[in-house]
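ok posting inputs for the zinc ion job
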Amino acid sequence: MKVIKFPVNPFQMNSYIYYDENSGDGVIFDPAVYFPEEKKKLDDILKTNNINIKKILLTHGHIDHILGNRYSKNKFDVDIYGNDKDNFLIENAVKQGVMYGLEIEESPAIDVILNEGDKLDLKNTELRIIHTPGHSPGSICYIDDNNKLVFCGDVVFRESIGRTDLPGGDYNLLISSIKDKLFKEIKEDYILFPGHMEETTAGYEIKHNPFLN
Ligand SMILES: [Zn+2]
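and the output
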């Protein structure tokens, strides 16, 4: 399995493609492309690597992660997966956009609701879902135990954590989601692929993240 990261939109949010190099089958996390050149870059990445996107996976419902939902759903014609506790954000995509001066399209609804303990079969591996609220009520992490990695959205960043001042945010709950949930579910050598900035590992954050001490 291979990860391709490409930061997109005015928020520089990390979208990720996670795919099997042999079959070309893969999934895309938070495909929030905004500018025409980003849409072209996505096309180029998919074409160059012969990738077929089979699922759209959402880490949560904030605008910088969902503003490409309509475009991506039309383009890939696959189901959108996510947790329904962020439906209030997804349903308000247009309003969320206005707050930041962005004109965006209405988001399609989540097709498949993912809850704690659910598993997604990716043929060569699987992703298991844990619910990690606090940054938003419907934030989830996608863990691949075979390849020791996690797509964690805006739950935890390198030496930082997700903001908790947006609707439904809860600081204490977020800290608990990271320390008592995520870091209990994975080992220290697991790589974290966050929604912003660079990758890190659980072990590095346990030692160096100032919010977790
Ligand atoms: Zn967010």
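notes: The radius of gyration is 16 Å. The mean pLDDT is 97.
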